[in-house]
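Wed. Picked up where I left off yesterday with histidine kinase. The coffee machine is broken again, so keeping this brief.
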Amino acid sequence: MRIDRTRLHDTLLAVVVAGVSVALFVLYGPDRLQAEGIAVDGMRAPDSFGAVLVVLACVPVALRRRWPLSALCATVVPETLLAVFGYGAGISCLAGLVLLYSVASYRGLAVALGGLLVSLVTYTLGAVAGPARVASWSEHVVVAVVLVAVWGAGRSLRLRRAYLEELKDRAARLERAHAADTRAARAEERSRIARELHDVVAHHVSVMTVQAAAARRVLAADPDLAREALSAIEHTGRLAMTEMRNIVGVLRTDSRADARAELGPQPGVRDLPLLAEQMREAGLSTRLQAEGEPRPLPAGVDLAAYRLVQEGLTNSLRHAGAGAKAVVTVRYEPHELDVRVEDDGVGAAGLSTRSGHGLVGIRERVALYGGILSIGPLPGGGFEVRARFPLKDGQ
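Structure written out below (tokens, as returned):
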């Protein structure tokens, strides 16, 4: 449809150019030129044959976009015949100007220069072959300037069109790059949320499972102790739901709410005493000790340290065995934060059972902040999860 409309427009333009050219051919005959004081020497009066030649010179305008240079060359024969038969040079110059503009606008520089040369040669041949009137050098210069100006206008349009196409292509590339960045950011965010959810669910569900087992064992013998265990389960469940709601809420809020969610309070080293108390209630004897002078930590390192302790204690609760003890050590050094979780449980025998998705996620967290993670059994028995986070500028 687009090609058909283009051909239709060019055909209509050819009809208009032919009509105007024939009208000028009829109106500006030798009598009219003499009446205006223009010297005419042997110029032939307009007739039907000359009008046909004028129309033939305008017909190629209909092909100006598809074959512009060929159409321009096709006008050379009728224009030369008009000059040879004495009708005067430049009778059909309007069609030549349109085709010269089309060549400059729709073809490369080499072809465009060839079109300009064809136009100049055609005018020169017409002026030499049919000297119907003596033209001054100034008139020839004006015609040459007009031809060059029309050619320059066509080249300017082509360059502008190419510039706009480049802008569109650049905008499309930027849009594709932005879409790729958005997909990568979303994938990273999904990975982060998956790690957060795993840490929250694994820890709280493990605590609730241990407490439920304890409540079941003492339900008949000591209902009050069972009631305390059930209350602890309820409290742990509420904590889990609150953390999960804060994490998943990011997925269904707008951008400003996302920013508020990202800036919202996250658990950190300051919350380790509450975590240790929760683990003691679940049946894991947990001791928390701090070494060095505590100081504010970067938010990412603070959260990663908390999640590491949470995952380490959760694994100790699951795998260390009954009566095991855990020690959490947070050491503040000048340029490093050392976080260590140790237990005296199963030890090397439980190494294969302690390498789950949670520890893999902790490894990713520690690597994200340039830390060093070591996980494995202790020489004298037990298991250790340790991470060292580098701190910059005294943080």
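Quick read: The first helix runs from residue 2 to 27.
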